[in-house]
Amino acid sequence: MVLCTVIGIIVGVMRLSNHKLSSGFGTVYVEIFRNMPLALLLFTISITVGNTLPNMADEFDIAGTILLSNQGIFTPAIDPGLLFIAILVPVLAKAYTTYADRDGFDDSDEGVRTRFRMWVGVFAVATAISLSNGWDVPTIWKRIPASPGSWVVEGGFEITLPFICIIAGLTIYTSAIVAEIVRGSIQSLPRGQIEAGISLGLTPFQRLRLVIMPQALRSMVPALNNQYMNVWKNSSLAMVVAYNDIFYINLVIVNKIGKAVPTFILILITYQVGSLVISAIMNLYNRRVTRVQI
After folding, report:
1. Tell me: the pLDDT tens digits for 178-231?
2. How many domains does the chain have?
3. What is the Cα–Cα distance from 204 to 211, expressed in whole angstroms?
4. What is the CATH number of the domain that holds 189?
5. What does the alpha-carbon distance between residue 43 and residue 243 come to, in Å, rounded to a whole number?
6. Quick check: 193 and 212 in contact, CB under 8 A?
7. Residue 101 placed within a domain
8. Could you tell me the pTM of the whole model?
């Protein structure tokens, strides 16, 4: 959801740019991926990535720490306890800034620079904490040297190929729809708002951040709510690129428990609870955005 939102906002703003290359790229991106069936897009990405990445025997490593192959990506693993503390640092920093901004946020250039330097420091501290105990680097070796296969990867953290494909497919497809939502919400604003920002001497980025986006959010959030729930529900299309894994897991569950129906009921409940949580969070944010009358 974060990736599709960031990419969607960037592409949506690019479509409104006066630069022909930027607007043309945004238009082509939206028109191609928005009108492509998601299942076909996932299948295409799966085949492309699977044929592009090397075999396990010819794996490609980055700086000797990250292994790339058509079986997945193996990255160094970080201690879970330190990772939790590292995540807690920016969360506490956000809580502090929210409390400090209760009387208003300093939108001046100096205030923005100060806030940027603070967040750089926060993420630097979080990174130092997470890496303070080192990391577990993945290593590859052969269980049976004479066998052409039997490669084993020990240590590290594995990102499977189906997971990469489903993330890439959902991000590309949904970001194209989010881009249209952003473009439509910005164009629905009165022209006078933009002209007022120009008359105040604001730069294009300042007009976008201080004038355009805060008002466009009022019409943008309800539509984004639907798209976020679609992302959650469309994740079930992982069956297209991970049928073998899902079938194997389901087979193991049935053999161990002996009851297939409760398993599928649990999956249905998971999707239902996820949709309700997303809807509740977005409705809460929508009430916060529309609290101030324009």
Report:
1. 999 998 888 888 888 778 888 888 888 888 888 888 888 888 888 888 888 888
2. 1
3. 10
4. 1.10.3720.10
5. 11
6. yes
7. no
8. 0.77
Strand residues in the chain grouped as ranges (E)? 60-62, 66-69, 72-75, 139-142, 151-154, 157-160
Q: How many CB atoms lie within 10 A of CB 55?
A: 11
Listed residue (192, 216, 179, 173) closest to 17, CA to CA = 179
Measured between alpha carbons, how far is 13 from 186 in angstroms, rounded to an integer?
9
Residue 199 lies in a domain: yes
First to last CA, the chain: 28
Domain for residue 230, yes or no? yes
- Bridge partners, 158 (sequence order): 74
**20-34 helix and 2-15 helix, angle to the nearest 10 degrees:** 130
Burial 165-195 (b: 16+ CB within 10 A, else e): bbbbbbbbbbbbbbbbbbbebbeebeeeebe
Q: Is residue 263 part of a domain?
A: yes
Length of the chain: 294
pLDDT digits (tens, 9 = 90+) for 116-167: 888 888 888 888 888 777 677 777 666 666 656 566 676 677 778 888 888 8
Tokens 């189906």, residue located: 162
User: Containing domain of residue 209, as a range?
Assistant: 2-55+159-289
75: CB partners within 8 A, 6+ apart: 65, 66, 138, 156, 157, 159
